Amino acid sequence: MIFQNLLASTSALLVALVQLGSMDVMGSSKGIKVLPVDLSPSIVYVEKDGIKGFIYPEDWDDNDARVMCKQLGYKSGVALGPWDLVRLQPNVTFGAIQVWDRDNYRLVCAEGFDDLAAQAVCRSLGFTYGKSICCSAFGRMDYSIVYSNINCTGIESSILECDYVKYFANCTSEHYASVACSNSPENEEFELKIHQSGKVTTRHFDNSGFICANGFDDTEATVICKEMGYKGGSAYFHSRHTKYSTVPLLGVPWLANIACEGTEKYLGKCGKINWGSVGTCDENRLPAVYCYNKTGFSFALVNGTDKDNGLVVFTVDDKEGAICLRDSVTEERQKLAAIVCKQLGYGNGGLLLNGTDAENEFTARKLFPGKSDMFITKIKCKGNESSLAECTFRILEGRYDFPEDWISITLDGCESSSCYRTRSYNRGYAFLNELSCWAGKRRLVVKCFL
């Protein structure tokens, strides 16, 4: 084994995973001192003739690690590489940077963290290239930010070789740093996909990802739809999580505040295509688009006793749709009625029918018969919105469009078969609620006033 000076490259730092608690001891052999390790895993540092260094792992294996750990008074140990000190969450190719330190993982501050630092992180994980993703891009992390003021030159093989400040973190933003890694250099190429549910995803730098809701509106939707061969598009938003379904891990938050004008033929021509520079991505909403070839969305009240009340319908191209309330309670329906009326230019509004839910359902089907071609469903609003565009919802155009993002039924967390049966029943009931829209049920009927 070769003794390396600490000034040499730490591209292959040796790590020993000690299997017992730390001990304040120092071993020595033939004038070489093995410096004490803290809680595992730890880099093995040594000292000879007053010069400190580390062990270069040429032919270093678990046998060597066991001898070293026993020399320090431990029971045993295993050899690890430098990549074991740094990991990414939630994925092996992208995520928040987590550095093992003493007894736990720590986070790196996003302030000043650039692509040179990202490359150092990715090199230590076996990739050739890296890109910084800002900021706190992957949600809440259960670790503290300890590393800050990261300064890399671009030649480092690990972020631990860069200059940094530790434990006195100057991280006023309180955002952690993230990266995306690849073995291909970054270029302007990317792929867009519009899913069956309308959500938009993109792939760039060999990593799948998505567009943040921040700054996303009809202009971006129009450009995306044009790129897909349509005349135009309308933007709306999905809720990231619902009771019986969840949006799967979408990948890297690649873009935000794209600033399209709507006249561009493809997204790459919009004003602010800064891959990975998303700021704080909206955690509650996910952009989606509905593409059309003739005319976009328009809302109206139909079949009422006068122009100020009736069934809420929308049209797009040659298709007509309704708002399906599904399992919403009366209070939520009242809020939604008021929002729709404001969107139509009224001061306020409420539900047209005031009986029980069962009475309203029977009366509504009698007064407003017929079926629709498509539905707006799974609507979630706060109540202070002035249009549906500020809420989250789904658009169903096919009878069985809705299962795309549904989670599978599992036994995870269940201790009996009855738990699984209950989950299956609840999921089946939710499916029936979805299908009830197509039977002409649960449609929104409102009365508006100035």
UniProtKB/TrEMBL annotation:
InterPro entries: SRCR (IPR001190), SRCR-like_dom_sf (IPR036772). Pfam families: SRCR. Residues 1-23 form the signal peptide. Transmembrane segments: none annotated. Keywords: Disulfide bond, Signal. Disulfide bonds join 152-162, 260-270, 381-391. Residues 86-182, 197-292, 299-391 form the SRCR domain. PANTHER family: DELETED IN MALIGNANT BRAIN TUMORS 1 PROTEIN-RELATED (PTHR48071:SF18), SRCR DOMAIN-CONTAINING PROTEIN (PTHR48071). This is NETR-like protein.
